């Protein structure tokens, strides 16, 4: 079968679309509505991503796609031109493919208007073009699927209005078929099947920035099935119900559609994907790979997962299976991986219970009331008589980190020791950093005390408020000279959240750092642009978000030798600035590296400071970039240990670690660099990170918002006007 006539037919169909004023009206309405919904909240949220834009896409596409396809065949039938077209020396299949391609080109032209938004956002914040590529690809494939569906429905009617309304309804159902709106009242056995059939499931999967073969197979099957059914309708019109040729086509296309459907559903068993994200957040890190490739013996991994989980957990289950599949491949013969369903096997249910994995209750909406369902989604790891368990996988974004750290905990023969030095009224891991401590014990031997534990590789000085005596300072210097490493978390101020005030500490950290030319300054840093939003309402009924410049989003430099390369930003609350003397550094035999800085819109406060979000006035003059974290590495020939200084300790508190994956990642990276363990340094909590848009003034935000909305209306209007005027001139032109 050849398709030599398709280019000419596509050109003809595009000419019809682009010469029709109604096409531009629909296009402009779609673009302005889509971007209006996005910009209504996007700049308030301040994310440097198009996540919200593509969350709206499937619903506004219910306007554009049916409007474009409603007359594809129904208008031809109503005008009586379909028979004329099919009697031309072209194949029926060529006509269908040309109509599908021309509609796809037209809608893709509309989707490309997201590119100027992406470019403008990238000018004011870190932007992941890999995720954007996945979002754009998913939107094109999604549109291609709706177009195929619309052409099929158009082939059923001679009325364009009937075709439009039924296409909107069918498109809506294809989106929600796997959601609780449909599945809440259905038997659990068919829910996974419906979830796989939903366009929304595969659209959201591709929009993450991961090109998965299962999603590609689904979209290809969806398109081919409905184009085949459209072809069958043309054959029915051509041959009639009783003709032998039509029966042959009917049987063949039904079988072909069944094959496409089975390939799409069974393709769920075929892993294979390309991670487009800039941070490779869906790919095992190099440290994870090295740990898995060097396992000393067999680790058994059991995934206990129910098939009747609520729809919102289906993406988590899918990603969990993908991660475990990657771990199995990298671990080779030293990883035994088993998938078990405790719901259908009493033996496996009892086994899961013995390992500490219990059924979890879910509240779902069904029959207009809340219903309670139960299910399993836990992982058990076994090695040499020892075991670790993840009772329930609530979020797959940090699953690689959890699994690899647990595997390392089970298989490591010896762990390096970290001491949190309590002298100087400093904070300890057990009392002040409980969440951090629970993660560190998987990787290190952690202890606290007034003296450095024997064999410690790292000593942590976390927010001391008192002074070290001369003996303690001498011990710290000797520890460093013998190759020990220091992590210094220096708080110049003590914060009282009850009194909303900050008072100076009486520590002498600078005495320890004096020989290296580093100083911890007696100030608090504020950043007017790169900061966090806090919920403020003074306990009243109305709460609202306020930017809080004392909680800065500290940024890594664009280039760094060892640290922060995978860090987007670290939230540092009430941080003080650091400075260093270059002349002293030359004689100290250390190299200095900036790890975290503020934006260029940071200032300093000194003296007694009020920290209330509604009480503080910030000077907007004399702003500049401030250094808030540095690393000191010994030069060649210097056998002393490494040092990291951060002007804050509160960033490691439970509250900030729970709400910022990068805070935990930064802590793990710094400790791994200090311990010289490169494998652990590359294991990160790979939660999707979105940078913050940094506008110097409101006019820039307004230019981005109204400029993009205007662009989406002006360009189609001008191009459409030019084509229509040109066409009218040609119509009235007199030829000799």
UniProtKB/TrEMBL annotation:
Source species, domain of life: Bacteria
DUF7088 domain boundaries: 280-380
Keyword Transmembrane helix (UniProt): yes
GO terms for cellular component: plasma membrane
Domain ABC-type uncharacterised transport system intervals: 415-662
UniProt key word Transmembrane: yes
Listed GO MF terms: ABC-type transporter activity
Spans traversing the lipid bilayer: 21-44, 56-74, 95-124, 136-157, 164-184, 216-234, 246-267, 706-725
Organism: Candidatus Gottesmanbacteria bacterium GW2011_GWA2_42_18
InterPro entries to which the protein is assigned, alphabetical: ABC_transp_unknown, DUF7088
Pfam families named in the record: ABC2_membrane_2, ABC_transp_aux, DUF7088
Keyword tags: Membrane, Transmembrane, Transmembrane helix
Protein name: Gliding-associated ABC transporter substrate-binding component GldG
């Amino acid at each position: 079968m050849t398709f030599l006539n398709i280019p000419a037919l596509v050109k003809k169909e595009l000419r019809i679309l682009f010469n029709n004023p109604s096409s531009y009206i629909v296009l402009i309405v779609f673009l302005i509505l889509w971007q209006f919904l996005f910009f209504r909240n996007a700049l308030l949220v301040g994310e440097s991503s198009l996540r919200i834009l593509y969350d709206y896409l499937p619903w506004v596409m219910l306007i554009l796609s049916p409007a474009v396809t409603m007359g594809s065949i129904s208008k031809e039938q109503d005008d009586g031109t379909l028979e004329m077209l099919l009697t031309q020396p072209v194949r029926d299949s060529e006509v269908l493919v040309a109509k599908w391609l021309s509609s796809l080109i037209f809608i893709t032209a509309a989707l490309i208007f997201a590119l100027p938004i992406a470019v403008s956002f990238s000018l004011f914040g870190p932007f992941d073009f890999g995720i954007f590529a996945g979002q754009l690809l998913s939107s094109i494939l999604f549109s291609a699927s709706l177009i195929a569906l619309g052409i099929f429905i158009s082939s059923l009617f001679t009325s364009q209005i009937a075709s439009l309304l039924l296409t909107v309804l069918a498109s809506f159902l294809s989106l929600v078929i796997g959601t609780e709106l449909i599945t809440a009242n259905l038997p659990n056995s068919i829910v996974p099947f419906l979830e796989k059939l939903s366009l929304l499931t595969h659209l959201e999967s591709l929009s993450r920035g991961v090109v998965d073969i299962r999603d590609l197979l689904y979209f290809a099957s969806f398109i081919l099935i409905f184009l085949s059914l459209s072809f069958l309708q043309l054959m029915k019109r051509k041959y009639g119900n009783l003709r032998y040729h039509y029966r042959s086509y009917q049987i063949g296309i039904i079988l072909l559609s069944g094959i496409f459907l089975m390939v799409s559903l069974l393709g769920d068993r075929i892993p294979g994907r390309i991670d487009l994200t800039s941070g490779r957040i869906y790919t095992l890190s190099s440290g994870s790979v090295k740990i898995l490739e060097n396992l000393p013996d067999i680790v058994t991994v059991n995934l206990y997962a129910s098939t009747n989980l609520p729809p919102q957990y289906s993406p988590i289950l899918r990603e969990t299976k993908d991660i475990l599949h990657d771990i199995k491949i990298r671990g080779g013969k030293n990883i035994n991986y088993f998938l078990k369903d405790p719901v259908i096997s009493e033996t496996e249910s009892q086994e899961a219970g013995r390992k500490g994995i219990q059924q979890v209750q879910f509240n779902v909406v069904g029959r207009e009331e809340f219903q309670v369902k139960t299910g399993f989604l836990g992982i058990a790891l076994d090695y040499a008589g020892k075991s670790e368990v993840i009772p329930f996988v609530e979020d797959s974004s940090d699953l690689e980190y959890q699994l690899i750290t647990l595997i390392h905990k089970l298989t490591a023969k010896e762990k390096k020791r970290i001491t949190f030095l309590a002298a100087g009224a400093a904070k300890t891991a057990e009392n002040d950093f409980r969440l951090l401590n629970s993660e560190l014990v998987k990787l290190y031997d952690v202890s606290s005390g007034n003296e450095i534990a024997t064999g410690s590789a790292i000593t942590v000085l976390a927010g001391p408020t008192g002074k070290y005596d001369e003996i303690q300072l001498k011990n710290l210097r000797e520890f460093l000279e013998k190759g020990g490493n220091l992590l210094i978390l220096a708080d110049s101020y003590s914060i009282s959240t009850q009194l909303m005030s900050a008072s100076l500490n009486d520590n002498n950290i600078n005495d320890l750092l004096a020989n290296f030319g580093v100083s911890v300054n007696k100030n608090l840093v504020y950043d007017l642009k790169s900061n966090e939003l806090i919920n403020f309402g003074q306990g009243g009924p109305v709460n609202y978000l306020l930017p809080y410049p004392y909680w800065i989003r500290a940024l890594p430099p664009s280039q760094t030798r060892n640290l922060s390369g995978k860090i987007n930003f670290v939230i540092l609350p009430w941080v003080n600035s650091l400075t260093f003397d270059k002349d002293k550094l030359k004689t100290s035999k250390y190299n200095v590296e900036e790890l975290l800085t503020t934006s260029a819109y940071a200032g300093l406060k000194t003296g007694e400071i009020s920290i209330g979000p509604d009480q503080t006035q910030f000077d907007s003059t004399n702003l500049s970039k401030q250094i808030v974290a540095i690393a000191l590495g010994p030069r060649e020939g210097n056998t002393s240990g490494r040092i990291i200084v951060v002007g804050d300790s509160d960033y490691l508190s439970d509250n900030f670690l729970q709400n910022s994956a990068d805070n935990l990642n930064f802590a793990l990276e710094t400790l791994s660099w200090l311990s010289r363990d490169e494998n652990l340094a590359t294991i990160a909590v790979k939660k999707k990170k979105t940078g913050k848009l940094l506008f110097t003034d409101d006019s820039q935000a307004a230019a981005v918002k109204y400029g993009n909305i205007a662009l989406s209306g002006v360009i189609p209007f001008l191009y459409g006007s030019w084509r229509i005027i040109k066409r009218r001139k040609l119509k009235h032109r007199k030829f000799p």
